[in-house]
Specification:
single chain, mainly beta, 10% helix, 45% strand, binds copper (II) ion
Length: 268
């Protein structure tokens, strides 16, 4: 073993006066920290996964419904199944995290308006337990029928008539999952979607196809794109088309410490 001969190395690492100063410094900084108001603390850390959903190639020309009540609804109406904007951006596509970190859903309660015999917005997100407001802006009877999807089956979530213009009704959604809303008053083209969720990690693509899921801690996530699908495969007896079903794609995405991540999806 090496013998210590240098006097400086035999001294304690911290002298008594230095130690006293350090204790005083710790006390002052700890007390100071307690005095910082909550609002001045750094916001909760979190990064974003961003990207877009795009249609590859020319968007298909889709059939339009022939309307009943044309004086209110117009002669024909879009099914709103595939909304392609500039540069192929696909609006109204849900993007969510299938393995979410901790976090409570805090989406503003959505309002879905029936106007010109269509639903606006076509897709919304609701926190589980929130009430969705349905407003009828048309001078015509609409019947709002919402279904939860359970596998390939569906069960009624709510079902009510809105015969009068400016009528408004709230519907609480107690279960998480995808709700499809249809009109049972003969408007076979009317359809909208509500994603009911317990966590805040979901987004609906904007008109340019972009989305952003925010507030994520570092980790590896399964990012799911869900699009309702637009190909007509059959027609129900009442005239409502049967569509080919949802298109679902998932990407594994890693959010590094101190940074976000980008992932894009493509429909064709
Ligand atoms: Cu209707």
């Amino acid at each position: 073993m090496m013998k210590v001969t240098d006097a400086r190395l035999r001294e304690p690492f911290i002298s008594k006066s230095d130690l006293a100063f350090l204790i005083l410094l710790c006390a002052v900084t700890s007390f100071g920290f307690l005095l910082i108001p909550q609002s001045q603390k750094a916001p909760a850390a979190g990064a974003s996964i961003t990207g877009s959903v795009r249609f590859s190639g020319a968007a298909p020309k889709l059939d339009r419904a022939k309307c009943i009540s044309p004086e209110v609804c117009g002669k024909t109406h879009s099914y709103d199944r595939l909304v392609v904007g500039k540069n192929g951006g696909v609006e109204y596509t849900l993007v969510y995290i299938a393995n979410p970190p901790a976090g409570k859903a805090n989406f503003p309660a959505p309002t879905i308006t029936q106007v010109d015999c269509g639903y606006t917005p076509h897709m919304a997100i609701a926190s589980r337990g929130a009430s969705v407001t349905f407003v009828n802006k048309d001078p015509v009877l609409h019947n709002v029928h919402g279904y939860y999807f359970i596998g390939n089956d569906r069960s009624t979530a709510f079902n009510f008539a809105q015969p009068t213009k400016d009528q408004s009704s709230d519907q609480q959604l107690r279960k998480a999952g995808m709700v499809n809303v249809e009109c049972d008053a003969g408007h076979t083209w009317m359809s909208s979607w509500i994603w009911v969720t317990d966590n805040p990690y979901a987004a609906v693509t904007k008109a340019d196809g972009s989305y952003s899921i925010d507030g994520l801690p570092p980790g590896t996530y399964t990012v799911v794109m869900w699009h309702e699908g637009w190909k007509t495969v059959d027609t129900q007896p009442g005239g409502r088309p049967v569509f080919s079903g949802a298109i679902v794609e998932q990407h594994q995405v890693t959010v590094p410490a101190g940074g976000g991540a980008i992932t894009d999806f493509e429909l064709k």
